[in-house]
Amino acid sequence: MDLAPKQSQSENLSALKSTVEQRLKNFMQDVTGRALVMMENATQGQQGIAMDLVQEAFISLHKSYSEKSTEEWYPLFYTILNNKLQDWRRKEARRSQPFSLFKKVSLDEDDLEIQDVIDETTPSPLEFLDQAVTIEEIQAAIRQLPVRQQQAFMLRAWEGFDTQTTAQIMNCSEGSVKTHYHRAIQGLRSALSHLNPYSGGSSE
């Protein structure tokens, strides 16, 4: 007599698992392209490493947060991805500096906060540049920025996260996010000014 309830419970679990798998598939289709661009920029074009980091982040997300809603997945995924990137960067820093194993490795070469930075809002990466500048040219310029500036810009401009959420993802203060983002925009305007004669570079 217990057979029917057990079958029903099994069917419910199977249906729930199927729903989670489908949600994850849809989520991956939405964010994979942008996440790969972010990681390729941060690893100086190492596509294999970028793919590994993104895949590992998806696996961790599914393993630890499958019960969360899709909306909650976005900041969680990028937080996991950021942590994996920082781990990779530390390993690379120690590999290039063998004796750094015995001291703290600093990865944030531009982490000093600028006081009174206005929290600039850029809904579209092209909005603050002339439309003649292409996404490819912007991405090439982004790759030349320090990694933390890249992250701040990509998370704010590409993903549309607010300053508070970006700070949580990057594990830093909101002031640091504002500083990184401000410097990223200045750097991009300067790097792309020769392609965009109407902008005249940054006036800040």
UniProtKB/TrEMBL annotation:
Keywords of the record: Nucleotidyltransferase, Sigma factor, Transcription, Transcription regulation, Transferase
GO biological process: DNA-templated transcription initiation
InterPro entries linked: RNA_pol_sigma-70-like, RNA_pol_sigma-70_dom, RNA_pol_sigma70_r4_t2, RNA_pol_sigma_r2, RNA_pol_sigma_r3/r4-like, WH-like_DNA-bd_sf
Listed Gene3D superfamilies: 1.10.1740.10, Winged helix-like DNA-binding domain superfamily/Winged helix DNA-binding domain (1.10.10.10)
Coiled coil location: none
Listed EC numbers: 2.7.7.6
GO MF terms, alphabetically ordered: DNA binding; DNA-directed RNA polymerase activity; sigma factor activity
Record has Transcription regulation as a keyword: yes
Enzyme class: transferase
Domain of life: Bacteria
Every RNA polymerase sigma factor 70 region 4 type domain range: 136-185
Stored Pfam families: Sigma70_r4_2 (PF08281)
CDD domains: Sigma70_r4
KW Transferase (keyword) present: yes
Family label: Belongs to the sigma-70 factor family. ECF subfamily.
Full protein name: RNA polymerase sigma factor
